[in-house]
Amino acid sequence: MDIKQIHELIKFVSKSGVNEVSLEQKEFKITIKTNPAPTFVTASIPTAIPVQNVVNSSPSPELAPIELSGMGGTKSEAATKAADTSNFLTIKSPMIGTFYRSPSPDKPLFINVGDEVKVGQVVCIIEAMKLFNEIESDVSGRVVKILADNASPVEYDQPLFLVEPV
To answer: pTM of the entire structure?
Structure first.
């Protein structure tokens, strides 16, 4: 194989979209690898489901009223937490990957607590297998809590944001 044939093979591999080609003959072996650019994919997430307040009629150790000394009242810590989030919508991760709050470290964050979010607005990026997927909101409202840390791994269906409907 001469240099002209090698050049033709390189051109063919770059046009074909193949990432790697190996060719082996008696006298030589040649491997051609291409380096694809990162691909960005836009994904929309399924409809957010409101967080529901579940009340158990039989008392359990976690839900039993706690006497607050000096306050003169009782309070269930678990019930208070559930009541705080009962009217919020949850934006969940549609995939497993790494959660990012901005398109790059030097760019501003997509959203912050207190920001208004609209349906179709990009709220974060999740990197999965070197693909950067823009995650869009499927709800409108005001962001009240961000549940995932920047550059941290997230699981499928993991809550990322709490949104108060407007």
So the answer is: 0.51
